[in-house]
Amino acid sequence: MSVYQQMMDTRVQRGAGYLVLVDPERWDIQEVEVFIKRINTSGADGIMVGSSLIIGEGAHQKMKKIQEIATLPLILFPGNVNQLTPYVDAVFFLSVISGRNPQYLIGDQVLAAPVVHELGIEPMATAYMLIESGRVTSAEFMSGSKPIPRDKDEIAVAHALAAEYLGFKFIYLEAGSGAQYSVTPRMVQAVCKYTDVPVIVGGGIHSPEVAKALVEAGAAFIVTGNVLEDSSKTHLMEAFAKAIHKH
Ligand code: 1GP
Protein backbone atom coordinates (compact mmCIF):
# COMPACT_ATOMS: atom_id res chain seq x y z
CA MET A 1 0.00 0.00 0.00
CA SER A 2 1.30 3.49 -0.80
CA VAL A 3 2.43 5.75 2.03
CA TYR A 4 -0.21 8.26 0.91
CA GLN A 5 -2.90 5.62 1.31
CA GLN A 6 -1.54 4.63 4.73
CA MET A 7 -1.71 8.29 5.77
CA MET A 8 -5.29 8.56 4.57
CA ASP A 9 -6.16 5.40 6.52
CA THR A 10 -4.57 6.90 9.63
CA ARG A 11 -6.88 9.87 9.31
CA VAL A 12 -9.92 7.65 9.06
CA GLN A 13 -8.87 5.36 11.90
CA ARG A 14 -7.28 7.87 14.29
CA GLY A 15 -8.79 11.23 13.31
CA ALA A 16 -5.34 12.75 12.84
CA GLY A 17 -1.79 11.48 12.60
CA TYR A 18 1.52 12.14 14.33
CA LEU A 19 4.80 12.37 12.40
CA VAL A 20 8.15 12.59 14.16
CA LEU A 21 10.85 14.49 12.30
CA VAL A 22 14.39 13.16 12.66
CA ASP A 23 17.31 15.32 11.58
CA PRO A 24 20.11 12.84 10.80
CA GLU A 25 22.69 15.60 11.23
CA ARG A 26 21.86 15.91 14.92
CA TRP A 27 22.41 12.32 16.03
CA ASP A 28 25.28 9.88 15.84
CA ILE A 29 24.54 6.46 14.44
CA GLN A 30 24.06 4.71 17.82
CA GLU A 31 21.78 7.43 19.14
CA VAL A 32 19.67 7.41 16.01
CA GLU A 33 19.09 3.67 16.38
CA VAL A 34 17.75 4.08 19.92
CA PHE A 35 15.61 7.04 18.89
CA ILE A 36 14.01 5.27 15.92
CA LYS A 37 13.19 2.21 18.06
CA ARG A 38 11.51 4.53 20.52
CA ILE A 39 9.43 6.18 17.77
CA ASN A 40 8.40 2.76 16.42
CA THR A 41 6.61 1.94 19.67
CA SER A 42 5.44 5.41 20.69
CA GLY A 43 2.11 5.39 18.89
CA ALA A 44 3.41 7.76 16.15
CA ASP A 45 2.17 7.16 12.59
CA GLY A 46 5.26 7.93 10.57
CA ILE A 47 8.86 9.11 10.61
CA MET A 48 10.10 12.05 8.60
CA VAL A 49 13.82 12.47 7.88
CA GLY A 50 15.46 15.63 6.65
CA SER A 51 17.46 18.70 7.45
CA SER A 52 17.50 22.24 6.14
CA LEU A 53 21.21 21.97 5.40
CA ILE A 54 23.26 19.75 3.13
CA ILE A 55 23.41 16.16 4.26
CA GLY A 56 26.84 14.58 3.91
CA GLU A 57 27.86 11.02 3.13
CA GLY A 58 27.63 10.06 6.82
CA ALA A 59 24.02 11.16 6.90
CA HIS A 60 23.10 8.87 4.00
CA GLN A 61 24.57 5.98 6.02
CA LYS A 62 22.42 7.06 8.94
CA MET A 63 19.39 7.08 6.64
CA LYS A 64 20.19 3.53 5.59
CA LYS A 65 20.37 2.54 9.24
CA ILE A 66 17.10 4.35 9.95
CA GLN A 67 15.38 2.47 7.13
CA GLU A 68 16.62 -0.88 8.47
CA ILE A 69 15.15 -0.16 11.88
CA ALA A 70 12.00 1.83 11.12
CA THR A 71 8.75 -0.10 11.21
CA LEU A 72 6.63 2.98 10.41
CA PRO A 73 6.33 4.68 7.00
CA LEU A 74 9.54 6.62 6.37
CA ILE A 75 9.16 9.93 4.53
CA LEU A 76 11.91 12.20 3.29
CA PHE A 77 11.38 15.86 4.14
CA PRO A 78 14.07 17.33 1.90
CA GLY A 79 15.84 20.59 2.58
CA ASN A 80 17.39 20.37 -0.87
CA VAL A 81 17.86 18.10 -3.87
CA ASN A 82 21.09 16.58 -2.49
CA GLN A 83 19.12 14.86 0.25
CA LEU A 84 17.31 12.52 -2.14
CA THR A 85 18.06 8.98 -1.07
CA PRO A 86 16.81 5.49 -1.82
CA TYR A 87 16.54 4.76 1.92
CA VAL A 88 12.98 6.09 2.36
CA ASP A 89 9.53 4.92 1.31
CA ALA A 90 8.24 8.28 0.11
CA VAL A 91 9.16 11.93 -0.25
CA PHE A 92 7.16 15.05 0.47
CA PHE A 93 7.63 16.56 -3.00
CA LEU A 94 7.57 20.15 -1.81
CA SER A 95 6.91 23.40 -3.58
CA VAL A 96 7.32 26.51 -1.45
CA ILE A 97 4.09 28.12 -2.66
CA SER A 98 4.14 30.86 -0.02
CA GLY A 99 7.27 32.28 -1.66
CA ARG A 100 7.96 33.71 -5.07
CA ASN A 101 11.40 32.21 -5.52
CA PRO A 102 11.24 30.18 -8.75
CA GLN A 103 14.03 27.85 -7.60
CA TYR A 104 11.85 26.52 -4.77
CA LEU A 105 8.58 26.73 -6.69
CA ILE A 106 9.61 24.62 -9.72
CA GLY A 107 13.38 24.79 -10.41
CA ASP A 108 14.58 22.24 -7.87
CA GLN A 109 11.52 20.06 -8.55
CA VAL A 110 12.61 19.68 -12.18
CA LEU A 111 16.07 18.62 -11.00
CA ALA A 112 14.60 16.25 -8.40
CA ALA A 113 11.89 14.57 -10.48
CA PRO A 114 14.12 12.29 -12.60
CA VAL A 115 16.07 11.31 -9.47
CA VAL A 116 12.87 10.43 -7.60
CA HIS A 117 11.77 8.40 -10.62
CA GLU A 118 15.08 6.58 -10.81
CA LEU A 119 15.13 5.85 -7.07
CA GLY A 120 11.58 4.52 -7.22
CA ILE A 121 10.42 6.38 -4.10
CA GLU A 122 6.84 7.59 -3.84
CA PRO A 123 6.40 11.34 -4.44
CA MET A 124 3.63 13.09 -2.49
CA ALA A 125 2.96 16.56 -3.93
CA THR A 126 2.97 18.97 -1.02
CA ALA A 127 2.19 22.69 -1.03
CA TYR A 128 4.63 24.06 1.52
CA MET A 129 3.62 27.32 3.13
CA LEU A 130 6.01 29.13 5.42
CA ILE A 131 4.24 31.06 8.15
CA GLU A 132 5.96 33.84 10.06
CA SER A 133 6.84 32.61 13.54
CA GLY A 134 8.65 35.28 15.54
CA ARG A 135 12.14 34.98 14.12
CA VAL A 136 13.88 34.09 10.87
CA THR A 137 13.92 30.29 10.59
CA SER A 138 16.31 28.12 8.57
CA ALA A 139 13.52 27.26 6.12
CA GLU A 140 12.85 30.95 5.50
CA PHE A 141 16.50 31.83 5.14
CA MET A 142 17.39 28.85 2.95
CA SER A 143 14.38 29.23 0.65
CA GLY A 144 15.04 32.94 0.17
CA SER A 145 11.33 33.62 0.50
CA LYS A 146 9.10 35.65 2.75
CA PRO A 147 6.73 33.82 5.09
CA ILE A 148 3.03 34.60 5.27
CA PRO A 149 2.32 36.92 8.25
CA ARG A 150 1.01 34.81 11.14
CA ASP A 151 -2.17 36.86 11.59
CA LYS A 152 -3.11 37.01 7.88
CA ASP A 153 -5.43 34.03 7.73
CA GLU A 154 -7.00 35.18 4.49
CA ILE A 155 -3.64 35.08 2.70
CA ALA A 156 -3.08 31.53 3.95
CA VAL A 157 -6.57 30.56 2.77
CA ALA A 158 -5.96 31.97 -0.72
CA HIS A 159 -2.71 29.98 -0.98
CA ALA A 160 -4.46 26.84 0.29
CA LEU A 161 -7.21 27.17 -2.31
CA ALA A 162 -4.62 27.67 -5.03
CA ALA A 163 -2.88 24.51 -3.77
CA GLU A 164 -6.14 22.57 -3.98
CA TYR A 165 -6.91 23.80 -7.50
CA LEU A 166 -3.37 22.94 -8.59
CA GLY A 167 -3.91 19.38 -7.35
CA PHE A 168 -1.51 19.14 -4.41
CA LYS A 169 -2.07 16.13 -2.11
CA PHE A 170 -1.08 17.91 1.09
CA ILE A 171 -0.86 21.44 2.41
CA TYR A 172 1.99 21.95 4.88
CA LEU A 173 1.68 24.91 7.24
CA GLU A 174 5.24 25.40 8.45
CA ALA A 175 6.33 27.76 11.20
CA GLY A 176 9.90 26.48 10.70
CA SER A 177 12.07 24.26 12.83
CA GLY A 178 12.71 25.80 16.23
CA ALA A 179 10.07 28.46 15.61
CA GLN A 180 9.32 30.79 18.47
CA TYR A 181 5.58 30.45 17.85
CA SER A 182 3.74 27.63 16.14
CA VAL A 183 1.09 28.29 13.48
CA THR A 184 -2.11 29.49 15.19
CA PRO A 185 -5.12 27.18 15.53
CA ARG A 186 -7.11 30.09 14.08
CA MET A 187 -5.14 29.96 10.82
CA VAL A 188 -5.48 26.16 10.64
CA GLN A 189 -9.22 26.47 11.18
CA ALA A 190 -9.53 29.15 8.49
CA VAL A 191 -7.61 27.02 5.97
CA CYS A 192 -9.57 23.85 6.80
CA LYS A 193 -12.86 25.68 6.38
CA TYR A 194 -12.06 26.25 2.72
CA THR A 195 -10.27 23.11 1.64
CA ASP A 196 -10.46 19.36 2.19
CA VAL A 197 -6.81 18.84 1.24
CA PRO A 198 -5.19 17.30 4.35
CA VAL A 199 -3.27 19.93 6.31
CA ILE A 200 0.05 19.09 7.97
CA VAL A 201 1.21 21.50 10.68
CA GLY A 202 4.76 21.74 12.01
CA GLY A 203 7.30 24.02 13.61
CA GLY A 204 7.58 25.13 17.23
CA ILE A 205 5.03 22.64 18.59
CA HIS A 206 6.37 22.02 22.08
CA SER A 207 3.49 20.53 24.02
CA PRO A 208 0.81 17.91 23.48
CA GLU A 209 -1.77 20.57 24.43
CA VAL A 210 -0.74 22.77 21.51
CA ALA A 211 -0.80 19.73 19.20
CA LYS A 212 -4.31 18.87 20.39
CA ALA A 213 -5.55 22.42 19.79
CA LEU A 214 -4.19 22.29 16.23
CA VAL A 215 -5.94 18.95 15.60
CA GLU A 216 -9.18 20.36 16.99
CA ALA A 217 -8.75 23.25 14.54
CA GLY A 218 -8.63 20.71 11.70
CA ALA A 219 -4.99 19.64 11.23
CA ALA A 220 -4.72 16.18 9.65
CA PHE A 221 -1.10 15.62 10.73
CA ILE A 222 1.14 17.16 13.36
CA VAL A 223 4.92 17.18 13.08
CA THR A 224 7.36 17.62 15.93
CA GLY A 225 11.13 17.79 15.60
CA ASN A 226 13.29 19.75 18.04
CA VAL A 227 11.29 19.17 21.16
CA LEU A 228 12.09 15.45 21.31
CA GLU A 229 15.81 16.02 20.72
CA ASP A 230 16.02 17.39 24.24
CA SER A 231 16.55 14.23 26.31
CA SER A 232 14.47 15.63 29.17
CA LYS A 233 11.51 15.86 26.78
CA THR A 234 11.76 12.66 24.74
CA HIS A 235 9.15 11.13 27.05
CA LEU A 236 6.59 13.54 25.54
CA MET A 237 6.48 11.41 22.38
CA GLU A 238 3.78 9.08 23.70
CA ALA A 239 1.80 12.03 25.12
CA PHE A 240 1.92 13.74 21.71
CA ALA A 241 0.58 10.60 20.03
CA LYS A 242 -2.28 10.36 22.54
CA ALA A 243 -3.15 14.05 22.30
CA ILE A 244 -3.22 13.96 18.49
CA HIS A 245 -5.26 10.79 18.03
CA LYS A 246 -8.97 11.31 18.40
CA HIS A 247 -9.63 7.61 18.72
C1 1GP B 1 8.54 20.40 10.82
O1 1GP B 1 10.09 22.09 10.85
C2 1GP B 1 9.20 21.38 11.62
O2 1GP B 1 7.58 21.06 10.10
C3 1GP B 1 9.83 20.85 12.87
O3 1GP B 1 9.82 21.90 13.74
O4 1GP B 1 11.72 21.22 15.10
O5 1GP B 1 10.28 23.16 15.76
O6 1GP B 1 9.40 20.83 15.93
P1 1GP B 1 10.34 21.77 15.21
Task: Provide a brief overview of the structure.
The protein is α/β, with parallel strands linked by helices and 247 residues long. It has 10 helices and 8 strands.
Account of the protein in words:
The chain is built from ten helices and eight strands. With 247 residues, it is of the alpha/beta class. α6 runs parallel beside α7. It is globular and about 45 Å long. The chain has one domain: FMN-linked oxidoreductases (TIM Barrel), CATH 3.20.20. An eight-stranded parallel beta barrel has the order 1-2-3-4-5-6-7-8, surrounded by seven helices. The site of SN-glycerol-1-phosphate has 15 residues, from β8 and α9.
Question: SSE layout and pairings?
Answer:
Layout: H1 3-14, E1 17-22, H2 29-40, E2 46-49, H3 57-69, E3 74-76, E4 90-96, H4 102-119, E5 122-130, H5 138-143, H6 153-165, E6 170-174, H7 185-194, E7 199-202, H8 208-216, E8 221-224, H9 226-229, H10 236-244
Parallel strand pairs: 1-2, 1-8, 2-3, 3-4, 4-5, 5-6, 6-7, 7-8
Helix pairs in contact: 2-3, 6-7, 8-10
Bound molecules: SN-glycerol-1-phosphate.
SN-glycerol-1-phosphate (1GP) binds next to strand 8 and helix 9.
